[in-house]
Amino acid sequence: MDNCIFCKIAVGEIPSKVAYEDEVIMAFHDIEPQAPVHVVVIPKAHIASGMNEVTKDNSAVVAHIFESIPQIAASLGLGEGYRVVCNCGENAGQTVQHLHFHILGGKTLGAMA
Ligand code: 5GP
Ligand code: ZN
Question: Is 29 a catalytic residue?
């Protein structure tokens, strides 16, 4: 997908600090961390724009992301807990239109919102 930051990160065209990678997904440290540990997990293939575009045909990658998150979190030292966030749409503050999930941790996060 042209002009998609996360597609460019997925192929290494934009450098990132990679936390985890396999054939279909990638986790990299957020450029503007909102917690001591803040990683973004993406499917390498573009799924626009995000949560609203998850379908029966592409949801296997979402399952794969969620199956992988515990081991990614463990590798990041988040044994004391973490939060997974998906911003969907303008009101949620979504800025990148490529499906992604945030893993946040490394401190007591407090109440949501
Ligand atoms: P959203 O706000 O769409 O849920 O999350 C997008 C996230 O991507 C933001 O937290 C933002 O800081 C991060 N981000 C945007 N551009 C880049 C980049 O070029 N590199 C990295 N590592 N993170 C980015
Ligand atoms: Zn993309």
Answer: no
CA of 67 to the centre of ligand 1 (A): 22
pLDDT in tens, 73-100: 999 999 999 999 999 999 999 999 999 9
Q: Give domain status of residue 51, yes or no.
A: yes
* Total number of domains in the chain: 1
| Cα–Cα dist 87/90, whole Å | 9
Residues 95, 52: Cα–Cα separation, whole Å: 14
**Does any domain span residue 50?**
yes
48 close to ligand 1 (CB < 6 Angstrom): no
Residue 96 Cβ inside 6 Å of ligand 1? The answer reads yes
pLDDT tens per residue, range 10-63: 999 999 999 999 999 999 999 999 999 999 999 999 999 889 999 999 999 999
**Residues 6 or more apart whose Cβ sits within 8 Å of residue 60:** none
Q: Which domain holds residue 94?
A: 5-105
Residue 36 within a domain: yes
Catalytic position from the list 46, 64, 98, 100: 100
